[in-house]
Design brief:
- The complex is a heterodimer of chains A (296) and B (304).
- With 296 residues, chain A is mainly α.
- Chain A has two domains: 19-78, no CATH class; 84-293, MetI-like fold (Orthogonal Bundle).
- Chain A contains 15 helices and no strands.
- In chain A, helix 5 (85-116) runs parallel beside helix 8 and helix 12 (209-225) runs antiparallel to helix 15.
- With 304 residues, chain B is mainly alpha-helical.
- Chain B has twelve helices and no strands.
- In chain B, helix 3 (76-107) runs antiparallel to helix 9 (210-238).
- The longest helix of chain B is centred in the N-terminal third of the chain and has 48 residues, at 2-49.
- The radius of gyration of chain B is 26 Å and the shape is flat.
- The termini of chain B are far apart.
- The chains are: A mainly alpha (296), B mainly alpha (304).
- Chains A and B meet through helix 1, helix 2, helix 5, helix 6 and helix 7 of A and helix 1, helix 3, helix 4, helix 5 and helix 7 of B.
Chain lengths: 296, 304
């Protein structure tokens, strides 16, 4: 597993650069440039929070003022109370967690079969899995909608869960991790008479925990962020996911001249939990992303 | 005697093989069922629907052959969607890759605080596109948005952004670049780490300047990553939906309607399942060609 973080601090990695005294001066320029770019990238988030704290008049004032005279924390309370965002966040977090749990289990199992077991049609199976990796998910939405409606699962959270019950990315990532495990460790367990189920969960899983963590986090975030597919199948406001709820809130506020501060406050509720999760667990996110590019 | 042992071994071998096959089926099924039901079967089914005139509601429909495909070929909207898709794809891919490389080069240095920069630069990627697109629609707001305020500040004319046919697509493109640039950066960081130091050192000893060293060593060494990123960002751009839905809904006057957005509209707004499925086929074919190129090229082009 490529571990960007660890390698970072250890070696002098810059390639085509001058050595010696120039370096210090260059570092300052580098810091300045990075600070500017970071500011630009973070700006929409900062602007979102600042706008959420303004009054209705302040937001449209010309010339534009960056900061509100008095931060209107009330806007957050108003937005939170006007629409059941708590429920939407719960719906999103709940479905995403269930999806992650299912994907972790079935990805691990199929990756185990592909890497450890001998059976007929293994190559074809792997080819099919690989073939679906690149396919545009959206192209399946129309027929998947028909299938879900035949199963009577339109407008249910279960419908979202079962239609997302497999992750080809997960199968790839876990398979890759399993290929790195030394054969002797598995053979030793085999000789001890351990079952395949035991080998998978008691030997291979602990050895590849970091890949599982990465996968679980990325899958959670992409399900939490998912919008198009859930918006097609969920119509009942009590079952809205946060992405659907936020967009509906945005449209409703727009009906009477957009209440931007409230909309920005609601966007903050939606984005902030993810940013916090990312800042805590960023190492896993980034190593997994780089890994998915290095194909085995 | 020997034969007997052989038969016994063979029997045992056959037994474990059969047992292994059963176990394999058990291990494969939990992933295979959803894969078949929600990926493979829908793909086949979609291809079938593309030859019908189904309206998604009525139980009856007719087979119409290639009519859906032919009518697409006579539809101006379709060509416009292809043009928009191309515009959007090229417009996002090139800046994302160049920007990602520049950021990676800046970060590719042992320096205090580098981790913080990296985290911030990457953070847009993990946020929900719907939510950040709402934030961006406020930034682009023509009357009170900060984008126009900045333009006025540097003495440029304020733009109508998402309200005009001309500037709606650039607005969608800017949001998409902002969101994916950190992703490209991570790949380049990894690639830059894999450039052997001996090579750049040798170049330095030979007296190659900074720029020459970069052009003749770093760029070729990371070119497989560049290629991979071109294809992947291209495929991602083909599938972009959320930002278009929030910012422009394909408008004004269809100026941001991509193939995918047209697919969404014909399937779920106009209930023209046949046309939508034909569009899905077009989308699948373009994606398949792109990934096939990636697959073949990466086989012969070693990743360093």
């Amino acid at each position: 597993m490529a571990n960007i973080n660890e390698n970072y601090e250890e070696d002098e990695r810059e390639s085509c650069s001058a050595n010696g005294q120039k370096v210090k001066k260059k570092n300052i320029i580098r810091h300045i440039l990075l600070a500017i770019f970071s500011f630009i990238m973070a700006f929409p988030f900062l602007w979102m929070v600042v706008s959420a704290l303004k009054t209705k008049d302040e937001i449209f004032i010309t010339p534009l003022k960056f900061f509100p005279a008095v931060p209107q924390w009330k806007n957050f309370i108003d937005a939170w109370n006007s629409t059941p965002f708590g429920l939407y966040i719960f719906n999103s977090a709940f479905t995403s967690l269930v999806i992650v749990a299912i994907q972790v289990i079935n990805s691990a199992m199929i990756a185990y079969a592909i890497t450890q077991l001998k059976f007929k049609g293994k190559k074809i199976l792997f080819g099919i899995v690989m073939g679906t990796y690149m396919l545009p998910a959206a192209a399946t939405y129309l027929p998947s909608y028909v299938i879900l409606s035949k199963l009577n699962l339109i407008d249910t959270l279960i419908g979202i869960i079962i239609s997302n019950a497999v992750s080809v990315f997960g199968i790839f990532l876990i398979r890759q991790a399993f290929l790195q495990i030394k054969k002797e460790m598995i053979e030793a367990a085999m000789i001890d008479g351990a079952s395949h189920w035991k080998i998978l969960w008691q030997i291979m899983f602990p050895l590849t925990k970091s890949s599982f963590t990465t996968f679980a986090l990325i899958s959670f975030v992409s399900n939490y962020n998912n919008y198009l597919w859930p918006s097609l199948i969920i119509k009942d406001p009590n079952k809205y996911l946060i992405t659907i709820g936020l967009r509906q809130f945005f449209i409703q506020q727009g009906a009477y001249g957009i209440k931007w501060p409230q909309v920005m406050a609601a966007s903050t509720f939606t984005i902030l939990p993810l940013l916090i999760l990312f800042f805590i667990a960023q190492k896993w996110f980034m190593s997994g992303i780089a890994d998915s590019g290095v194909k085995g | 005697m020997e034969g007997h042992v052989y038969v016994e071994m063979k029997l045992k071998f056959l037994n474990t093989r059969r047992k292994e096959s059963i176990i394999a089926i058990l291990f494969v099924t939990p992933a295979l069922i959803p894969l078949v039901v929600f990926w493979i079967w829908p793909m086949i089914y979609s291809f079938y629907i593309s030859f019908t005139n189904w309206d998604l509601m009525s139980p009856k429909y007719d087979m119409v052959g290639f009519k859906n495909y032919l009518s697409l070929l006579h539809n101006q909207e379709f060509y416009k969607a292809i043009f928009n898709t191309l515009y959007f794809t090229v417009g996002t891919v090139i800046p994302t890759i160049i920007g990602g490389l520049i950021l990676a080069l800046l970060l590719n240095k042992k320096m205090k605080g580098i981790g913080i920069y990296r985290t911030i630069l990457f953070s847009p990627w993990i946020t929900p596109t719907v939510a950040v697109s709402i934030v961006w629609s406020w930034i682009f707001e023509p009357r009170a948005g900060i984008a126009n305020w900045i333009l006025t500040l540097i003495h440029l004319t304020p733009l109508p952004w998402t309200e005009s046919e001309r500037y709606a697509m650039p607005a969608v493109i800017i949001v998409t670049i902002w969101k994916s640039i950190g992703w490209a950066m991570i790949f380049y960081l990894e690639a830059l780490q894999r450039v052997p130091k001996e090579l750049t050192e040798a170049a330095k000893i030979d007296g190659a300047g900074r720029f020459n060293c970069f052009r003749n060593i770093t760029i070729p060494m990371i070119s497989p990553t560049t290629f991979f990123l071109v294809i992947m960002t291209g495929i991602n751009s083909l599938q972009a939906y959320d930002q278009i839905q929030v910012l422009t809904q394909g408008g004004p006057a269809g100026s941001t309607r991509t193939i995918l957005y047209m697919y969404y509209q014909s399937a779920f707004q106009n209930f023209n399942a046949g046309e939508a499925a034909a569009l899905a086929t077009v989308l699948v074919i373009i994606t398949a060609i792109l990934s096939l190129i990636e697959f073949i090229v990466s086989k012969y082009w070693v990743h360093y």
